[in-house]
């Protein structure tokens, strides 16, 4: 009887050790897979923060270097022209009288929704392919949101033109938003 109990005890220990080994191997696979997602998410955050910092620093430089509506020619197609934009990206709807609180609320809501969607995609759904482009959109939106909260308008200063035809004046955040949107659309059309 004693030998039978020892034999069953040994078999139980062997089964438990085998189960632990299998569990360890599976957990190692799961954690290495999650590390990939975490690394990509950290890259996403770094790019977003880098865009916000570059945008903020260029706007600070413009504010301290130029007077409002001051124009400096850089080359035949590029001027730095410091203006306050009360509208949306690239001066869209700048002639309309928007309540700044509405634009702050709208932008903040859109950024929050997109961050939740991206967080869900990275960690729950585990799909993140074209979401890396959204770091440019979110970084630019947050950059402009900071201006709206701090100044009540967005600081724009890049003026690209061909002779007398000028594009709307924009900033680094607007470039980032446009790049992210175009890259995401092109990815969806051609690579999905």
UniProtKB/TrEMBL annotation:
Its main location: membrane. One of its GO terms (cellular component) is plasma membrane. It is found in: Cell membrane. Pathway: Protein modification; lipoprotein biosynthesis (signal peptide cleavage). Keywords: Aspartyl protease, Cell membrane, Hydrolase, Membrane, Protease, Transmembrane, Transmembrane helix. InterPro entries: Peptidase_A8. GO terms for molecular function: aspartic-type endopeptidase activity. The active site is at residues 156, 174. GO terms for biological process: proteolysis. The chain crosses the membrane at residues 41-58, 102-124, 131-149, 169-190. Its EC number is 3.4.23.36. It is a multi-pass membrane protein. It catalyses: Release of signal peptides from bacterial membrane prolipoproteins. Hydrolyzes -Xaa-Yaa-Zaa-|-(S,diacylglyceryl)Cys-, in which Xaa is hydrophobic (preferably Leu), and Yaa (Ala or Ser) and Zaa (Gly or Ala) have small, neutral side chains. Belongs to the peptidase A8 family. This protein specifically catalyzes the removal of signal peptides from prolipoproteins. This is Lipoprotein signal peptidase. It comes from Buchnera aphidicola (Thelaxes californica).
